[in-house]
Amino acid sequence: MTEQTRAFSMWAGAGVALLAVATLIFGWSLPTLRTKALATQGQRIEVSFVESPPWMTPADLAPLQELVAREAGTSAYDRAGLERALGALMSTGWFDSVGQVRRVGLNALEVEATFAHPTAVVADGDGDHLLDSQCRLLPRTYSAGTAPHLPRIVGATQKRPPRAGLLWTGADLFAGVELALLVGEQRWRNQIAGVDVSAFSTDHTLTLLTSGGCRAKWGRAPGKEASAEVPAEQKLRYLDLLHAQYGRIDGAGPRAIDLSVDYVASQ
């Protein structure tokens, strides 16, 4: 045997030995990985949201977390389950968008989503229904007077959509939500009990209802004022003045005021 042949034989033997070791290691590790993966089956999947708004309490989030865990299946590694969970969340009506449902551990999921923004409740014969800033119905209904402090829109002409997530149509309701969004940014917002849109079909005007029982005729929706009507900014300044002087936007307690004209008269 030549020197070259002996060297080749040595390298070949080493290769066989390395292959045997690799096979042994792989054969040992494969059952271990399989056991680790199977260990996740049947265990509870923990679900968390990257960011949730302060108005979503733990009790509000719990059904959504259970929904994700149920749709994801028994393992956080089930991709089809993650896709089902994403679709199920969007169908609840609570979200503007759901970006991702991702794994963050053996039995943990993390949801990246943008929640809808509750803006008002709309009254009909079945109660007060939560609405977001885009006039979509949210999956919550309250008996009259039990809703959180949001403007209560009354007098809407169109019927409530059949399920959450759908648009509640009607130009009167769209205008009412625009006004609800505007007054919701003011420091005296807690003194607003509702927005009456019942006159919209005749003259396109809206009326603010205060917690003190006053009807404040607002006029047309913000930014859509008639030619003889004062702009929204001036109406807000007048309400700010009343609030500063009396501590209330309905002043000394008139039954009605007209904010749409340059000279505000009370009744």
CATH architecture of the largest domain: 3-Layer(aba) Sandwich
Question: What is the fold-level CATH name, i.e. the topology of the largest domain?
Answer: Rossmann fold
Give the neighbour order of strands across the main sheet.
6-5-4-7-8-9-10-11
Sketch the major β-sheet. 8 strands, mixed
Average pLDDT confidence is 84
β-strand amount = 15-25%
The N- to C-terminal Cα distance equals 120 Å
Secondary-structure element sequence?
HEHHEEEEEEHEHEEHE
What overall form do the CA principal axes indicate?
Answer: elongated
Oligomer: single chain
- Look at the helices and sheets and give the structural class: alpha/beta
Roughly how much helix do the residues carry, as a percent range? 25-40%
Keywords, separated by commas or semicolons:
267 residues; alpha/beta; Ubiquitin-like (UB roll); Rossmann fold; 2 domains; 8-stranded mixed beta sheet; 6 helices; 36% helix; elongated
SSE layout and pairing:
Layout: H1 3-39, E1 46-49, H2 58-72, H3 79-91, E2 95-105, E3 108-115, E4 118-124, E5 127-132, E6 137-142, E7 152-154, H4 171-183, E8 192-196, H5 200-203, E9 206-210, E10 215-219, H6 232-246, E11 256-258
Parallel strand pairs: 1-3, 4-7, 7-8, 10-11
Antiparallel strand pairs: 2-3, 4-5, 5-6, 8-9, 9-10
Task: Explain what you see.
By secondary structure, the protein is an alpha/beta fold. It folds into 2 domains: 46-115, Roll (Ubiquitin-like (UB roll)); 118-258, Rossmann fold (3-Layer(aba) Sandwich). Helix content is 36%, strand content 24%. It has an 8-stranded mixed sheet with strand order 6-5-4-7-8-9-10-11, with helices on one face. It has a 3-stranded mixed sheet with strand order 1-3-2, covered by helices on one side. Helix 6 links the parallel strand 10 and strand 11 (256-258). Helix 2 (58-72) crosses helix 3. The radius of gyration is 31 Å and the shape is elongated. The model is unreliable at 14-40 (pLDDT under 50).
